Amino acid sequence: MNAIKSLKEMVSHLENLAVNKKIAVAVAEDDNTIGALIEASKAGFASPILIGCKEKIVKLLSAENVEPNAFQIVDLPDQQEAVTEAVRMVKDGEADVLMKGLIGTDKFLKAVLNKDKGLLPPKAIMSYVCALDLPKYDKLLFVSDTAVLPYPDLNQKIAMVNYSVAMAKRFGIEKPKVALISATEKPNPTFTSSIDDTTICKMADRGQIKDCIVDGPLDVFLACDKESIAIKGVETPINGEADALIFPSLEAANTFYKGLMLFGGGELAGLIQGTIKPVVVMSRSESQKSKFYCIALSCLMA
């Protein structure tokens, strides 16, 4: 398999594989979510199950000139009942992917994290990985953690590395290059995460973290720009060709990706990681295109 280098290529790959996954959508009552699901259904890789107020869902489908009987609709107007049923369907194998609709993230994730009925196995670490499609980078860039872990500790960063590698490999990248990002390439007690970075690199050297090349701490220039390697004279196996960036905090990662989306013309697809099935969590204000790409990513990972 050739490496997938863009989100459009990911969609084409899914179409060629003839993949079709069932998406259980909790509170499917906003137009961007409905529009993205219609697009994914037309592309052939997703079969949406729309859970929420049937009256509102039917109105949204009609506004898109789609017959209500085109999709399975589960009429549960109460948000709590809707998200509980969506999680149950995924847990019981009636759906392959869980997706958030017009419901608050806290309420949605509370159902995902429910000890008895949720989707996170005991002792598993929940994190978030997104794939960025950037005009000025010649391949996709996987970034973690942009949404879940505020200040990841050593074990959480190890999980972030493993999740990013697993996702990158689904895109045909045999041995992903993973850069542990900091403000500088030199370990510094001021940046406590950079000390964890040296431990992670040693673990990778010893084979405790597999199927990837890891180095850090590195700044973004050394991770993603070959010219900076020559200018700084720093030797790193990443060589300015990073496939994945692991950030020291959610604040740093979130600011990084949003800046690229706003000013750099980037596109994004992202997923919760660590759950037994893919979970799509996006802001209610995200664009239809971003939600479409997230749905496509979930179908690739399911």
Distance between the termini: 18 Å
Low-confidence stretches: none
What is the structural class? Answer: alpha/beta
Helix content: 40-55%
Count of DSSP H/I helices: 11
How many β-strands, per DSSP?
11
Major sheet: 6 strands, mixed
Mean pLDDT: 95
- Proportion of residues in β-strands: 15-25%
Q: Which outline best applies?
A: globular
How much is the radius of gyration in Å?
A: 20 Å
Spatial order of the strands in the main sheet?
8-7-9-6-5-10
Protein model, in words:
The structure is a single chain. This protein is of the alpha/beta class and 302 residues long. 42% of the residues lie in helices and 18% in strands. It contains eleven helices and eleven strands. The chain has helices at 7-17, 31-43, 54-63, 79-91, 105-112, 154-170, 192-205, 220-224, 226-232, 250-263, 288-301, and strands spanning 21-26, 46-52, 72-75, 97-100, 127-133, 141-144, 177-181, 213-218, 244-246, 267-273, 279-280. The strands form two sheets. A six-stranded mixed beta sheet has the order 8-7-9-6-5-10, with helices on both faces. A hairpin with a 7-residue loop joins β5 and β6. α1 crosses α11 (288-301). The longest helix has 17 residues, at 154-170. The protein is globular, with a radius of gyration of 20 Å.
In short:
Helices cover 42% and strands 18% of the residues.
Secondary-structure blueprint of this entry?
Layout: H1 7-17, E1 21-26, H2 31-43, E2 46-52, H3 54-63, E3 72-75, H4 79-91, E4 97-100, H5 105-112, E5 127-133, E6 141-144, H6 154-170, E7 177-181, H7 192-205, E8 213-218, H8 220-224, H9 226-232, E9 244-246, H10 250-263, E10 267-273, E11 279-280, H11 288-301
Parallel strand pairs: 1-2, 1-4, 2-3, 4-11, 6-9, 7-8, 7-9
Antiparallel strand pairs: 5-6, 5-10
Helix pairs in contact: 1-11, 2-11, 4-5
